[in-house]
Design brief:
Blueprint: E1 5-9, E2 12-16, E3 21-25, E4 29-33, E5 37-43, E6 47-49, E7 53-62, E8 68-76, E9 80-85, E10 90-91, E11 96-103, E12 107-117, E13 121-133, E14 139-141, E15 145-152, E16 156-160, E17 177-181
Parallel strand pairs: 6-15
Antiparallel strand pairs: 1-4, 2-3, 5-7, 7-12, 8-11, 8-13, 9-12, 10-11, 13-14, 13-15, 16-17
Length: about 190
């Protein structure tokens, strides 16, 4: 996210009053400069199960009275897979996506990416940033934003009909076992 720039200033005046040099100071003034271009992202959840899908919505907002040209880059690290995105976004490779175009005056360009957890990890990473041209024609960059998603699995639960019981010699007894998958997003195999 872009930052508000805040600076304080004090002016001084040196002069000679005919007898000696004197210095006067003004009181301090503070100027705040709000960026005219901002990038924000909202992640649906920051902890998911393996196989679960979530989305992240990114807004590129132009607070300026003129249209600006922006170039946006989105990347995912190990553990996440991008399964869907808007058709205006270009796929660079399996992990990197780009959008370039104008962001109209006082408007936002919204981009949404659908992600799937494909590997267990405590911190799957999502990165995004933008480059834009300001109203003076100067190219500027936003700070790269990093978000993390925890991808986990609940495993399986094993149950049987075996309680504390005794089987006598030559007695037959039916033993049953159940395996319950606690993660609804992936199938279990080779049970």
């Amino acid at each position: 996210k872009s930052k508000v720039t805040e600076d304080s200033y004090i002016a001084s005046l040196n002069y000679f009053n005919g007898f000696k040099f004197k210095t006067l100071y003004t009181s301090g003034i503070t100027l705040k400069a709000t960026p005219f271009f901002d990038i924000t992202g909202v992640l649906q959840k920051d902890s998911i199960l393996a196989g679960e899908e979530i989305n992240i919505t990114i807004n590129l907002t132009n607070f300026n009275a003129k249209t600006v040209d922006a170039d946006f880059e989105f990347r995912v690290g190990d553990g996440l897979e991008v399964v869907d995105y808007r058709s205006i976004v270009q796929k660079v490779d399996d992990n990197t996506f780009r959008w370039a175009g104008p962001v109209r005056a006082n408007r936002s360009q919204q981009l949404r990416f659908f992600l799937k957890g494909v590997q267990l990890t405590p911190a799957a990473e999502i990165f995004y940033k933008a480059t834009y041209t300001d109203y003076f024609g100067v190219e500027r960059k936003t700070d790269e934003v990093k978000k993390t998603v925890k991808i986990e699995d609940r495993g399986v639960k094993l149950s049987t009909n075996i309680d504390d019981f005794t089987i006598e010699a030559f007695q037959s007894k039916r033993v049953m076992a159940w395996v319950q998958n606690l993660n609804p997003y992936v199938d279990i195999k080779n049970v």
